[in-house]
Amino acid sequence: MSKPKVLIAFYSRNSSTEILANAIAQGAIEEGAEVRVRRTRELVSDEVMSQIPGWSDNAKAMNSKYEAPSEADAEWADAIVFGTPTRFGSISSELKAYIDGLGGLWFQGKLNGKVGSVFGSTSSLHGGNESTLLSIYTPMAHLGLIIVPLGYSDPAMFKAGTPYGATHVSARDSLKPDDDHLAVARFQGRRVTAVARGLLHAKVLAAAA
């Protein structure tokens, strides 16, 4: 059986969400997945970006490391993991634009039955991590993804994260994800991969029946 294929499509401005994305990728690879990590692109003008110290420089650095996610990436994947910082308690426009751009695949039914999962970060305590992750569940359901939350199915979940997905609070970008938060992210990668593998195995058995 081929390796489960996992797409991690994220947006990050100051690296907290990026760090979680790479930890999820690590967990997925440990579980035997083939992984693509992609960063969505800015939608606002350079003028707007210049008002936030470091935004432009960080964007250039991250965009040099990661390709932008494409329709082809989503079609390729057996599992799609979306990651975003909170924006006023909800999904970032950069990630939402990518999801909205999957309408062609949705219309053709090509996303039905793929695994879907989410993770995110926020700058302030109670800044909307859980509401943001839950807000992404809605378009995932419309796309036909099989939503995979984390629950409390690993000891790491009793130290950090949420039952909906890995999270981090950066305290106005003064803190990076620590070992406990990274452990949750790696578990998310493993869990998503294991579920995707199970679904692939079920398809093989169904085809052979």
UniProtKB/TrEMBL annotation:
<keyword id="KW-0614">Plasmid</keyword>
<feature type="domain" description="Flavodoxin-like">
    <location>
        <begin position="6"/>
        <end position="192"/>
    </location>
</feature>
<dbReference type="GO" id="GO:0010181">
    <property type="term" value="F:FMN binding"/>
</dbReference>
<protein>
    <submittedName>
        <fullName>NAD(P)H:quinone oxidoreductase</fullName>
        <ecNumber>1.6.5.2</ecNumber>
    </submittedName>
</protein>
<dbReference type="InterPro" id="IPR008254">
    <property type="entry name" value="Flavodoxin/NO_synth"/>
</dbReference>
<dbReference type="GO" id="GO:0003955">
    <property type="term" value="F:NAD(P)H dehydrogenase (quinone) activity"/>
</dbReference>
<keyword id="KW-0285">Flavoprotein</keyword>
<dbReference type="GO" id="GO:0016020">
    <property type="term" value="C:membrane"/>
</dbReference>
<dbReference type="InterPro" id="IPR005025">
    <property type="entry name" value="FMN_Rdtase-like_dom"/>
</dbReference>
<keyword id="KW-0521">NADP</keyword>
<dbReference type="Pfam" id="PF03358">
    <property type="entry name" value="FMN_red"/>
</dbReference>
<keyword id="KW-0547">Nucleotide-binding</keyword>
<keyword id="KW-0520">NAD</keyword>
<keyword id="KW-0560">Oxidoreductase</keyword>
<keyword id="KW-0288">FMN</keyword>
<dbReference type="InterPro" id="IPR029039">
    <property type="entry name" value="Flavoprotein-like_sf"/>
</dbReference>
<dbReference type="InterPro" id="IPR010089">
    <property type="entry name" value="Flavoprotein_WrbA-like"/>
</dbReference>
<comment type="similarity">
    <text>Belongs to the WrbA family.</text>
</comment>
